[in-house]
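[step 3/7] inverse_fold.run input=structure_tokens len=419
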């Protein structure tokens, strides 16, 4: 009986052990299943509960593979996230094949326009005296403003004092004659035509007299600014002797300016096809289009000579207050051509130790660096001879930021992540 009891107890124990093992295995699978549902990485959890450090390593590796697969990144791909793009002035343009222009790159000088340049000359000989010490080049002046005077009171020839006395005497004579004939006309002693002739002589003498008093006071000749503008150049020193007709100073009205370039004669055949031009200032490197400055092609030379074999090309522009008359600028003159090619904004091109490259967008936040060969430039855009093709998308604004991103590999946000 005792033996039968032992056998029964042994069977019950075996049955209980088997059930516990099955329950334990079921719980482990359930735990594994729950973890898989909470993690979107679908990585292998084999040995998850037994080797935690091993799981972390597998998870990081799998996440990188999944990310790479999702975005189709290559080994040299540069990641620049949408969040980073939104923080800067960022733009991507599509590469297109378009008609090209022949571009003539040259230097040019800015000068006042002919209509805006006036030369003041001495109307009489004598000693010149500037109105004040502020009469210097660059001074803004208004039309009618007195700039200098010429004193010839002590001159033997063409003495203003003598001339003034003569003009005053002629005026007084004409005035008396006119007043006398007014009285005679009232008594019908003289005809109306005689009175009219006397009045004409009087008005003419009066005009000369008033002009003398206004412009030639005390034996001096006053010279006024003929336009509103600025003093461009002073040609004689103060308190020096000048001759009648001698140039004293030049005034410039800088509302309109000329930009003149002298080109080699080989460019003559294309000058008739000039369409526009870009102007680059040398002080700040800013590029203005002819349209920005309300400009136009004014003329180009039709002949050359031995002394000057260059061909002048002149553009007229509006003064924007930044381009200085007398300064030199760099010009990109564009003429029509029958060639086609790819042009990209200069802001898309990045230089690395003498090598030029652009960044091609392969995905929303993935970019590839391409080495390119540059062609002609118009100051705003540059021809790309090779390195990109039509249909690709290139970073046109923010290229430098993408370049910086290639040197700082972004860390995987799941790397080292612990569950």
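[step 3/7] decode complete -> sequence:
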């Amino acid at each position: 009986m005792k033996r039968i009891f032992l056998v029964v107890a042994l069977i019950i124990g075996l049955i209980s052990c088997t059930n516990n093992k099955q329950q334990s295995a079921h719980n482990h699978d359930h735990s594994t299943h729950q973890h898989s549902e909470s993690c979107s990485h679908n990585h292998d959890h084999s040995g998850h509960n037994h080797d935690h450090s091993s799981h972390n390593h597998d998870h990081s590796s799998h996440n990188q593979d999944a990310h790479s697969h999702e975005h189709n990144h290559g080994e040299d791909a540069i990641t620049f996230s949408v969040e980073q793009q939104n923080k800067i002035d960022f733009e991507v343009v599509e590469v297109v094949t378009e008609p090209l222009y022949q571009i003539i790159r040259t230097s040019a000088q800015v000068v006042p326009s002919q209509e805006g340049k006036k030369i003041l000359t001495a109307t009489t000989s004598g000693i010149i005296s500037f109105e004040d010490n502020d009469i210097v080049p660059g001074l803004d002046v208004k039309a009618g403003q007195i700039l200098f005077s010429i004193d010839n009171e002590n001159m033997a020839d063409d003495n203003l004092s003598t001339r003034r006395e003569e003009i005053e005497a002629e005026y007084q004579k004409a005035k008396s004659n006119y007043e006398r004939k007014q009285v005679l006309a009232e008594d019908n002693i003289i005809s109306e035509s005689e009175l009219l002739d006397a009045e004409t002589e009087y008005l003419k003498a009066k005009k000369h007299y008033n002009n003398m008093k206004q412009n030639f006071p005390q034996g001096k000749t006053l010279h006024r600014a003929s336009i509103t503008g600025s003093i461009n150049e002073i040609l004689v020193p103060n308190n020096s002797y000048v001759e009648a007709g001698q140039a004293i100073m030049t005034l410039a009205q800088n509302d309109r300016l000329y930009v003149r370039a002298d080109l080699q004669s080989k460019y003559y055949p294309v000058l008739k096809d000039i369409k526009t031009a870009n102007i680059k200032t040398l002080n700040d490197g800013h590029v203005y289009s002819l349209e920005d400055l309300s400009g136009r092609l004014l003329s180009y030379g039709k002949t050359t000579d031995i002394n000057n074999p260059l061909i002048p090309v002149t553009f007229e522009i509006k003064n924007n207050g930044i381009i200085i008359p007398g300064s030199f600028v760099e010009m990109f003159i564009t003429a029509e051509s029958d060639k086609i090619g790819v042009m990209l904004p200069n802001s898309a091109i990045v230089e690395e130790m003498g090598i030029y490259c652009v960044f091609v967008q392969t995905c929303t936040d993935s970019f590839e660096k391409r080495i390119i060969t540059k062609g002609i430039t118009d100051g705003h855009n540059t021809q790309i001879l090779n390195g990109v093709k039509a249909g690709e998308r290139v970073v046109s604004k923010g290229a430098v930021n993408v370049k910086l991103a290639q040197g700082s590999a972004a860390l995987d946000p799941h790397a080292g992540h612990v569950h």
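[step 4/7] annotate
DSSP finds seven helices and 23 strands in the chain.
Residues 17-72, 409-419 have pLDDT under 50 and may be disordered.
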